[in-house]
Amino acid sequence: MLAWREDFCSKLASSGFYVIRFDNRDIGLSKHFDHLGSPPLVRRVLLNLFCGRFCRVGTPYSLSDMARDSFGLLTALGIDKSHVAGCSMGGMIGQTMAIMCPERVLSLASIMSTTGARNLPDGDLEVRLMLLKKPGPTHEDRVNR
């Protein structure tokens, strides 16, 4: 929710769209699962390398769970079908929604996202390693990084 700027959403709404922005699990203002920790980096890399999508990394929920969350919200709001847009993980959730219930997804904008297909190229190693670093403690540290 917080990643979608209010002025952008207002422009969409003023163009006649009914805009819903919300936080997925473990981000923004939603419930966080920090107490579960994250899998060690080496374990994640090895699991991905040797097992790909067939090994679970040990997360308490999946993209399918988050797609069901999205459908649950739409249902609670009385919306049967919708256009879906998502960035990064939100794009993957949108793709999962389209696969699970294509009759409920009028269109999909999957932005800066991936399907997770193993034949897709990886990003530059230097960039991927930089993105894995923990952000600095202050806003200025994060901006400088």
Q: Can you put this structure into words, describing what you see?
A:
The protein has 145 residues and is mainly α. It has one domain (6-144). 41% of the residues lie in helices and 9% in strands. The protein contains six helices and two strands. A two-stranded parallel sheet has the order 1-2. Strand 1, helix 4 and strand 2 form a beta-alpha-beta unit. Helix 3 (63-76) packs across helix 4. The chain is globular. The mean pLDDT is 82.
Q: Which SSEs are present, and which pair or pack?
A:
Blueprint (H helix, E strand, L loop, with lengths): L5 H9 L26 H11 L11 H14 L5 E6 L1 H12 L4 E7 L13 H8 L6 H6 L1
Parallel strand pairs: 1-2
Helix pairs in contact: 3-4
SS-based structural class? mainly alpha
Strand order of the largest sheet: 1-2
Strand content: 5-15%
Helix content: 40-55%
Write a compact overview of the structure shown.
The protein is mainly alpha-helical.
Keywords for this entry:
mainly alpha, two-stranded parallel sheet, globular, 145 residues
